[in-house]
Amino acid sequence: MKVDATDLKTKETDDRGRVYLGTEYANKRVTVAVVEVESDKPDDDELAAAYREASESAEALAAEWSETSDEAWERLDE
Known about the structure:
Layout: H1 44-77
Region (Disordered): 53-78
Protein name: Transposase
């Protein structure tokens, strides 16, 4: 069977995995093939990369804050 790419439709599922096809399919037999499934959630590699980036950013911010705090205390001692 040959499928024309223009005939393919992308639909989003609800929270229970159901798809609303529309009224044009009412009272008709419909055959559906799942070609690809994409997740809304990041995979483990993406989560690990985001965690590393946040950790590095937090370390840099803590170091910057420490320097600023030291400068503020030194000015108070003057």
